[in-house]
Amino acid sequence: VLIAGTLIGGVLIIIAGFFLAGRTLVPIRIAWEKQQQFVADASHELRTPLAVIQSQAELLFRHPYATIEQESEKISAVLKETRRMNKLVADLLTLARSDSNQLEIERKPLLLDRLLTEICWQFAQMAEIKGVALTTDLHPGIQLEADEARLRQLLVILLDNALKYTAEQGKVHVICRRTSHGVEIVVEDTGAGIPAEDLPFVFDRFYRGDKVRTSSDGGTGLGLSIAKWIVEAHQGTIRAESKIGKGTTFTVQLPGKK
Ligand code: ADP
């Protein structure tokens, strides 16, 4: 009986060990697979601008006596891809640092309406050139404890997208108001919209809509994942609502004093 009891006990301990190890190893495996995917996607995204830079530089090298127009065409292609790579590398660094908790959020009191007025002002010229009406409804005196640089980065991502995906004669409207739990920032546009089946993925790393994937607008598909990280680092939430052909609304909710 003693031997049988010891054997059964041993078997039970081994089974429990495997069960517990399985439960703890699964999240590690998922995190590892996610990391692998991130590295693979990043390498893939970096290869495209690099290939363009290499081919244009080789052409310039092989045909040094081409016309000035042909030369400047190639040089501007190299510059455009270099800028794209710079942005991509900066975005990748932000995400890699946020993954390893190396990015600190430095909270300081700031006036949200003032920050939004300043950023909208910076985008006013871009909106005018595009023929898009940029309007605001900013409740005055909303104070918030937040990292100003990161909040600026978040708002720039949302406004840049709203203008990028809204055609001439469209509208972009920015709202900031108090809510019962804190503050709410809304960026709504009357642009292209996002298909319902794509909406759950817009905050995923490297996700880009079908139509824009092949375009040369310099997007990286990392903007909204950085936006999500910034909002969550401030214990807030971000959501997207959209109707194809009608427009998109991003709503950010941040906790704050009443
Ligand atoms: P990027 O803009 O560089 O492609 P983002 O992460 O900022 O990457 O956005 C991911 C995708 O979400 C975009 O490629 C686009 O398809 C879609 N998207 C984001 N914002 C908007 C918007 N305001 N209107 C329509 N589509 C949008």
Automatic annotation (TrEMBL):
Single GO MF descriptor: kinase activity
Location relative to the cell: Membrane
Keyword Transferase attributed: yes
EC number: 2.7.13.3
Record keywords, A-Z: ATP-binding, Kinase, Membrane, Nucleotide-binding, Phosphoprotein, Transferase, Transmembrane, Transmembrane helix, Two-component regulatory system
Catalytic activity: ATP + protein L-histidine = ADP + protein N-phospho-L-histidine
Annotated transmembrane regions: 1-21
Predominant place of localization: membrane
Coiled coil segments of this chain: none
Domain Histidine kinase positions: 41-258
Name of the protein: histidine kinase
